[in-house]
Amino acid sequence: MNPIQEEHSPLNRDDHAPFRDDDVFITQVDLKKPEILFSTYFGGSEEEVVCEHLSDGSDLYLIGATYSPDFPIKNPLVTPGFRDQAGFVSRVSLANHTYFAQFGDGAGLTSEIILTNPSKEFPVEGEIEFYDDHGSPLLVELSTLQDGTSGETKHFRSPLQKLEFVVQPQGVFMVSTDGQSEEPLVGSATVISDGNVGAVSSFRIQGIGTTSVSSGQPLSQFLIPVRRGFGGFNTGVAIQNTETSSISLNLTLRDTDGALIVSSEPLGLEAKGHLARFLHELFPEVGTADFLGTVTVQVDGGRAAAVALELGENIGEFTSFPVTPIE
Fold first, then answer.
1. How many other CB atoms sit within 10 Å of the CB of residue 69?
2. Is the pLDDT reported for residue 276 higher than 90?
3. Which residues lie closer than 8 Å to 33 by C-beta, 6 or more apart?
4. Which residue of 7, 99, 180, 187 sits 20 to 30 Å from the alpha carbon of 215, by its own alpha carbon?
5. pLDDT at site 314
6. Structural domains of the chain sorted by starting position, each given as residue range(s) with its CATH number in brackets
7. How far apart are CA 225 and CA 327, in angstroms?
8. What pLDDT, on the 0 to 100 scale, is given for residue 38?
9. Is 279 helix (H, G, I), strand (E, B) or coil?
10. What's the whole-number mean pLDDT along residues 203-225?
C-alpha cells in the first residue's frame, strides 16, 4: 500500500461568503488501464468545502465543513444551516473490499480462501487481513499453493495477521489454514485489493465434510433462513462488522410465515469485530427444537456482512444458507 500522501491545496474552497450551491466532485481513475472507476458528487443540499484531503492508497479522507442541514454528520456540536457550518471528516473507500464473515482453524476445522483475477491484462494486488471477535488481529497458521502443476505449497514459518498476494491476469490464488491448532481460532477475513477479484471460501470439518461460501456484502438489513432439529440439524450464523467503529445488531426470530416470535436484546459489535452463534445460542429464551423459520438482522451505526452454515449429525451434512438483503 502507498504511504499516506497529504495535499494542502483544497479541493473546493471559497474564502468569501458561501454561494450555498457548491459540492465536492470525486473521481477515481485506474492508472493501469487507464479508465474511470467511479465519479460522484459529495455533499448535501447546501455548500460543502473540503480544505484537506489525504490518501493511504486504499482510503481517501476528506476534511472540511458543511452548511447542509441534511449532511449526515454524527453528533455535531452545531447543526449546519444557512449561517452555521459544521466540520466533518469523511472516509471514502478507494480499494475493493471483500468480506468473509467466518474464518477459522483448529479443532478439526480448516478454512481456505480462493481468489481469481478476471482481467486479461493486469494483475491484482492486495492483502488479506484476519480479525478476532473483538476486531483485533487474529494470528493463523497459513500455507499457499505455489505451483498448481506439482502441488507444491509454501508454509509460513510463523502465524500471520495479514497476507499480501498477487493474482496474475486470469489467474488464481489460494491460501489455507493448516488445521493443526489444538484450540479453535475463529474470526473473520477481509480481502483488500486494487482490482476486482472473484472470491469464495471453503470450510472443512473433520468427520463431517466440506462446504463453500461466497463472499458477503455489507448490508444494513438482511434475512437468513434457520433450522434446528429435524434429524440433528443446526444453523450457525456469523456476522462481521465491516465498519471502523462499533455497531449494534437487532435480531428477530420469525416462523415460516414471517410472523414475529421474539426480538433479541441489541448485540454490540466492536469495530471490525465478529460473532458466531448457533440458533439456540442467539435465542436461548425460546425453544427452538425442531424449528424452521428465519432470523432478521438490522444494523444500527453502519453495515455488516454475514454467513450462515448448517451442520448435521451425519457425514456430508454441511451446507451454507443464503443471506438476503431486506428491501
1. 15
2. yes
3. 121, 122
4. 180
5. 87
6. 5-93 (no CATH), 96-214 (2.60.120), 221-325 (2.60.290.11)
7. 16
8. 67
9. helix
10. 94
Closest CA to 103 of 56, 150, 50, 142: 142
- 204 touches 110 (CB < 8 A): yes
Alpha-carbon gap, residue 66 to 49, rounded angstroms: 6
Q: How is residue 161 written as a grid cell?
A: 495477521
Q: How many CB atoms lie within 10 A of CB 35?
A: 8
Around Cβ 93, how many Cβ atoms within 10 Å? 11
Return the C-alpha cell found at 99: 468480506
Could you write out the DSSP letters of every residue in 54-66? EE-SSEEEEEEEE
**Helices in 66-145 by DSSP H: which ranges?**
none
Residue with cell string 473507500: 93
Assessment of whether the complete model's pTM goes beyond 0.90 = no
Which amino acid appears at position 312 of this protein? G
% the chain with pLDDT above 90: 52
How far, in whole angstroms, is CA 96 from its chain's centroid? 11
Burial 108-136 (b: 16+ CB within 10 A, else e): ebbbbbbbbbebeeeebebebbbbbeebe
Distances 252 to 219, 270, 305 between C-alpha atoms, Å = 16, 20, 17
Torsion region of 302: left, alpha or beta (phi above 0 gives left; psi -120 to 50 gives alpha): left
Q: What is the DSSP letter of 120?
A: S
In terms of Cα–Cα distance, which of 322, 307, 312 is closest to 276?
A: 307
Q: Is 135 left (phi over 0), alpha (psi -120 to 50) or beta?
A: left
The pLDDT value recorded for residue 57 is: 63
- Supply the pLDDT for residue 47: 80
8 Å CB contact between 5 and 40: no
The neighbouring-strand residues paired with 86 are: 66
